[in-house]
Structure formats: structure tokens, C-alpha cells
Amino acid sequence: MADDVLSQGVLSQTEIDDLISSLAAGEDSDKPKKTVASNELEKVVKVYDFKRALRFSKDQIRSLTRIYENFARLLTTLFSAHLRTYAHVSVVSSGQVPYGEYIRSIDSMTFLNVIEIPPLKGRMIMEVQPDIAYAMMDRILGGKGSGMNKISLLTDIEMKLLTNLFKKTLDPLQEAWAGISHIEPKLSEIEVNPQFLQAVSPNETVVVVSMHAVIGDTNGTINIAIPHVVLEPIISKLTAQYWMESGTKERKPEAVDALKSSIKETNVEVDVELGKTELTIRDFLALSKGDVFQLQKRIDEPLFVKVAGIPKFLGQPGMKYNNLAVQILTMINEGDEDDEW
């Protein structure tokens, strides 16, 4: 614009003022554009800590939470029945952290149950706080279930009692995982000092599921730590889509055949009804050996053959090898039963 004006001749004062104003307006309009671009760039850039790599999606965390919610319900039943006191276990939170950070967050003395879960590789950790563990042990020994942090003073007998109790939690763990994978959990060791436990490398991501436990009047926490290496082979199953598909998919032919085979070996009671009649209480009390009363059925009519109390066949009586027998004549279809039976 400036070149066009200068080519036409000398500028007037009004034209000079307009030119300066237009140049100033152009500079101001450029500033917001740069600011907007800068803001957009700041929104895109996110800080990422490679030491805290997030290797599980929110959907996968929710699937694991669902598994351990079921596990918590099973533990509630187990502890209530075995300890004979009020017990309740519920999931309160779940998330993923580096293994080294998880270990540093644990108390210096606690119960760390190291569980192997073949065929999956690696080991998971079930941390039971001392107050809860001692309340369980106190109930086993006949006490009221008082919690006391005296883990360093436990005797060999007390440790054996707690070990046996912790082993009982493996069956509920297997049942809770049945919808995702068949596992055979085994309690390999119990460690009381987290610094001596090196399950995976410090930078390995672990999923930590925290459960609140109540045993009698004692409250505490049970934490489950599952390393990524354990879940890697089945990571594709930890989705909502898999849960929905597994609930609706048909049984495999092998499973159907096995079910049919098991049903065929089931024993059922079979009865044959010769006939019916009606007697008064007086006549019934007067019955004696040798008396005869008439049934409401002709001798040439077929008999009802009942399976588990339900008429399924029509048959006729007879003898086989000097034993009473019934020959099946036909099967009773639904709606064909006589109203009298």
C-alpha cells in the first residue's frame, strides 16, 4: 500500500496519518495470532515421566478392579466363617505406580504374601497390615480379635497359624480370576521386611488394588500388587468388550460333551404307579393282611412311569428272570399327561 501511494506523488498529512494508523493496526493484529498459536502449543505439550510409565489403560484398571471386588466379597465370606466374627472386605482404590515407589510406601514391618500364579509368569504380592493379621490370629486362638502391631514378637507357632490362614485365601483368588484366566495360585513365601523383597525391577509398573478390611473391631488395609509382567500375556482380556463377549459366547463343544457325559452318570429315581384309589380314615385303619381294595385303573391300561416324580413314559407290567419289571411302551409328550396322575 505504501509503494502505491508514493508512486502517485507527495502524500498529504491526512494520508500520512491514515498510513501510520493502518501500519499500527497491522502490528496489533499480529500479536494475538502469535499468542493464540503459543497457547495452542502449550495445550498440546504434556509432561511425561519415563520413570512412572503408565502401561495400563483406564479400562484395564477397571477390569482388574472388578476382579478384586469379587475377591473382596469372597474374602468376606471366608473370614466370617473361619474366624466366627464380623468381617468385611471392600475395594477402596486402584492405580498403577512403579514397583520401587510402591515398596517405599510400605511400612518397615508388615506381612507380604508372595504368591505365584502359574501358568502366568512372575509373582503378585498380597500385603496384610499387622493390625489386621494379628486380629485374625487372635480370633484363631480364641481371643476377641484385638489388633496389635507386634509382628517382631510373633512366635513360630503364631506365624504358622497365619500362614495357614493366608493359604485359605488362594481358593477365593482362583475363583475371582476364573472369568479371565485359569490360575493355580501358590503361597511361595511370607516376608516381613519390604526391603528384602525384590519381586521385579524398581521401574516395573505394578497395579496396586487397596482393600479396606474389618475384622471384629479392628480396621486395616490389604493391598494387592500385580506387576505388568504377570498381566502381559492376558492384557487383551482386560477390556469391557471381552467381559461382554465372554458372558454371551457359546460353550465349546468339548465342554458341552463333558457336561452331557456327567449328566448321563447322574442317578435318578424311577417309580411305576399301579393305580390310585380313595379310602376313608375308618377303612384305612381297618385294613389288615389279606384285605383287597379296588384301584381306579383297568388291568389292560398302561401304567405311568415317573422319573424323579414326573410322568415321562407309559409302560406295562411283567416279569423278567422271576423279577417284577416294566416294559416301556411310549414317551409322554408335554400336554399328553392324564389329569388323574
From TrEMBL:
Gene3D superfamilies, per the entry: CheC-like (3.40.1550.10), SpoA-like (2.30.330.10)
Chief subcellular location: other
Ranges of residues in domain Flagellar motor switch protein FliN-like C-terminal: 263-332
Subcellular location(s) per record: Bacterial flagellum basal body; Cell membrane
Recorded GO CC terms: bacterial-type flagellum basal body; plasma membrane
Family label: Belongs to the FliM family.
InterPro entries noted in UniProt: CheC-like_sf (IPR028976), Flag_FliM (IPR001689), FliN-like_C (IPR001543), SpoA-like_sf (IPR036429)
GO BP, one annotated term: bacterial-type flagellum-dependent swarming motility
Superkingdom of this protein's organism: Bacteria
GO molecular function, one term: cytoskeletal motor activity
Protein name per UniProt: Flagellar motor switch protein FliM
Lipid bilayer topology: Peripheral membrane protein
Lineage of origin: Bacteria, Bacillati, Bacillota, Bacilli, Bacillales
Keyword terms: Bacterial flagellum, Cell membrane, Cell projection, Chemotaxis, Cilium, Flagellar rotation, Flagellum, Membrane
